[in-house]
Amino acid sequence: MSPSMAQGGTGTSSHSPQLNGFSSSNNPKANSFARRQKISQQRRSLPIASVERRLVEEVKNNDTLIVVGETGSGKTTQLPQFLFDAGFCRDGKTIGITQPRRVAAVTVAGRVAEECGVELGQKVGYSIRFDDMTTGSTRIKYMTDGLLLREALLDPYLSRYSVLIIDEAHERTVPTDVLLGLLKDVQKTRLRSINGRESKNKNPNSNNEEGAQSSIFKPFQGRKLPPLKLIIMSASLDARIFSEYLGGAKAVHVQGRQYPVEILYTAHPQSDYLESVLVTIFQVHLNEGPGDILVFLTGQEEIESVERTVHEQLRQLPEGKRNIVTYPIFSSLPSEQQMRVFAPTPAGFRKVILATNIAETSVTIPGIKYVIDPGFVKARSYDPNKGMESLIVIPTSKAQALQRSGRAGREAPGKCFRLYPESEFEKLEDSTKPEIKRCNLSNVILQLIALGVDDVPGFDFIEKPSRIAIVKSLEQLFLLGALTDECKLSNPVGHQMARLPLDPIYSKAIVQASSFNCLEEMLITVAMLSAESIFYSPREKSEEAKTAMKCFASPEGDHVTLINVFRAADEFLEKRKTVTSKDKDDKILRKWCKENFINSRSLRHARDTYRQIRGHAEQMGLHFASCGDDLLQFRRCLAASFFLNAALRQPEGAYRALASGQAVRIHPSSVLNQTKADCVIFNELVQTSQKYIRSVSIIDYLWLTELAPQFYAMAK
Ligand SMILES: Nc1ncnc2c1ncn2[C@@H]1O[C@H](COP(=O)(O)OP(=O)(O)OP(=O)(O)O)[C@@H](O)[C@H]1O
Question: Would the pTM count as exceeding 0.80?
């Protein structure tokens, strides 16, 4: 396909190409005084600036407040500063703001620190898993919702906070939903600690008044705690649902947006949205004025494939028009690489950012004027009856489409190209189905129990997960040995599992590996499994890639194969002895990866993750050992950990997953694709044309009854 080919229907109006003279909002040479002036003027022009006084009054008068305002109106960056200025951090208290995504917490904190003229980590900071940029002086703290939930494990009353803002609540991530229930309770407990003061949310119709329901926490006996102000915030929120849940909380709407975003639809549905993405990128590049492009795709593989094709097609353009630089951003990309998308666009170039929904909410990426939205997202899906979680590509909701278009129009007017007809937009769901209704709950349940919630089905969820999903997850935790018969954390396994920031099945594998003398191998395995697609196979070199993979392939399966890759990279670096400079290491490793058809981004992610979980395991005092060449021991540990994902070969050649009874096949990317092992364990089930299992290793069927009698003795 020629990049200059115009495809009817995206509705772009033609502009004469203006390929030179791109400007970036982040000129590093700008004099700091001028920059401060500019920022202060920008702040004053935000829609939220005109309602500062009113918002502060509303927060003073209401313990819980819902704030809804257009994308880019200034909620995330300004409201915490208004509250700080109004004295909410007196007595050394902190204002905490949660974000569903790490990248948003980090970049917004950076922006607010700059607006306040302070160094990041002083008055303004952020805290995300494995990265804490706060100090004793931090008063405005951005963090992920998951991190605040973990903080609650250490301080159930979250006593350092005077205000907690749950931002982007429409995303309805599991941690956000759970936090809402917990924070309601923290508010009640804190109020009770000050002479049973009445809540300031006065709603005669509310059946959720303070005291109507008993606290999940033990009665508070101790010092008086200041009241907690709770603010729920989003651009695309059905305020009614939240208000009803939060005892009739008041909703405030911030009117207006800073710059308009023109929305364009295709005339017809697109049969191949990736093709349409490519056409639209080049159409914008060749026909529209200056400005960077943000494209939403569903995952790493798709992003990397579009990135390659953009570069191939660029070569076909006249020399003066090849001025595109591409940057990917997805969750498993190491954070320094994620941050590259926020850097100023090189002079004379147009930046094209290829992103998953990681860049959908909260972030402001300087320079973005055009958004291309094919309308799809990869979402978790869970079938509690089969106990199987999978990732599927589904259409976005209207709320997501709105958030995506809101990434343009933040510094100047923008355009959003939705690659589907307007009639399709009308058919989209209004909001995204809450994650808690479509994922395995064992992780969150383990955390709730660790927080002291005894009656998980009775927990005050904003929308209750199905009873069967709760029961299945409790059953899974019990089978993993995390819970006792009384549904308490077991000692020490359950407590150890709750301390590890991983899915329980992986926490169990790590705790278990310690007693199988193969902790090192299991840490590598879990780290490698956390990265998407370690092997990389370009279409035009698929035979070479297959040969390269054979050098690492183990007849025992994918887990040992992944360990082989990890260790080969380590040995290679060791031989080159380049530990003096991380940059040099990275460069050499990238070259090695390229030669061996390994995805260097994924390997770097795995190496980072390995270091982080190893740190946790060491802190917990787990017995650190390697089983060396005795991989039998390691495979027995795989069976003892992942026994819920075992499959038996059937006479006709397919496999049957033992826990769910589903017919599955080994994925073509597995090293065991051609083998005829009788019994295997796996880590992932993907549904494409049929059900495939990925990350597969051979085990002995008898190990299951020996090592997991709690399940296989029952199942017999
Ligand atoms: N890193 C940044 N660089 C430049 N401008 C920024 C940056 N962050 C924020 N801004 C400016 O501040 C405005 C308000 O951003 P803010 O994140 O507070 O809005 P919001 O209402 O929370 O939006 P959303 O609902 O999309 O999260 C942006 O539209 C943009 O003009």
Answer: yes
